[in-house]
C-alpha cells in the first residue's frame, strides 16, 4: 500500500477541520475499470462507507485512515506525475469535503473521475468530473440504498456500473437500463461478481440480449489480484 508521505501527514495534523479529509491511501497504478481503463492513474482512496455490499473488495477502507489537508493531497497527487486521477473509497461522497477536493483537482488540470455508490446525492460534484455511478443490484445486498434521483443528473461525461451477481441481477439491471434509457445518456458498464457469475457467462448474456452496454473486467485484479494499493 502506498500512503501519502509522513511529512504531508504532519502538515495535515494542524490543518483546520474544514480543510481536511480522512484518507486510506494514495497510490499510482493502472485504471482497471470504466472508460479510462489502462491509463496510469493516481488513486485517492477516502476512508469510510455507509454501505456493506456483500462483494466489497475494499473493506480495509471502512475504518482507520489519516486526516490530510486538501493541499497536501494535491501535492502528493502531483508527486506521482500522472494526468488521470480517480477519487474512490469506501464511499468518497460520505465525506462532504470530497466536493472541494474534486474541484481543486479539476482546477489543477487533471482528468478526474469519481467512483461513487450512487447512494449519495451527486448534484454538487464539479461538472468537469466523470462520475462513475455504481448502481447496486439486489445481489449486492444494498439495492435499497440506490438514490434514483441521481439518474436524471447524469450527463455524457458520466458512467454507470452494475456488478452482476446472478441471472436475476442481470435481468434487473437490464430493466433499469431500459426504463431510464441510461445507454442514451452515458456509458453503461456491466461487471461480473466473479465468485457468483463467470466472465464468460455474463458476456454470453449481453451478446444474447444485444444489450447496449459495455462488458468489463477489473484489469487490476487480473494483473495484481487482491493486493491493496494496486
From TrEMBL:
Pathway: Purine metabolism; 7-cyano-7-deazaguanine biosynthesis. It catalyses: 6-carboxy-5,6,7,8-tetrahydropterin + H(+) = 7-carboxy-7-carbaguanine + NH4(+). GO terms for biological process: tRNA queuosine(34) biosynthetic process. Binds 1 [4Fe-4S] cluster. The cluster is coordinated with 3 cysteines and an exchangeable S-adenosyl-L-methionine. It comes from Pseudoluteimonas lycopersici. GO terms for molecular function: 4 iron, 4 sulfur cluster binding; carbon-nitrogen lyase activity; magnesium ion binding; S-adenosyl-L-methionine binding. [4Fe-4S] cluster binds at residues 49, 53, 56. Substrate binds at residues 30-32, 45, 88. Keywords: 4Fe-4S, Iron, Iron-sulfur, Lyase, Magnesium, Metal-binding, Queuosine biosynthesis, S-adenosyl-L-methionine. S-adenosyl-L-methionine binds at residues 55-57, 90. Signal peptide: none annotated. This is 7-carboxy-7-deazaguanine synthase. Its cofactor is [4Fe-4S] cluster; Mg(2+); S-adenosyl-L-methionine. It is an enzyme of class 4 (lyase). HAMAP family: QueE. InterPro entries: 7-CO-7-deazaguanine_synth-like, Aldolase_TIM, rSAM, rSAM_QueE_gams, rSAM_sf. NCBIfam families: rSAM_QueE_gams. Catalyzes the complex heterocyclic radical-mediated conversion of 6-carboxy-5,6,7,8-tetrahydropterin (CPH4) to 7-carboxy-7-deazaguanine (CDG), a step common to the biosynthetic pathways of all 7-deazapurine-containing compounds. Homodimer. The keyword Metal-binding applies. Residues 36-230 form the Radical SAM core domain.
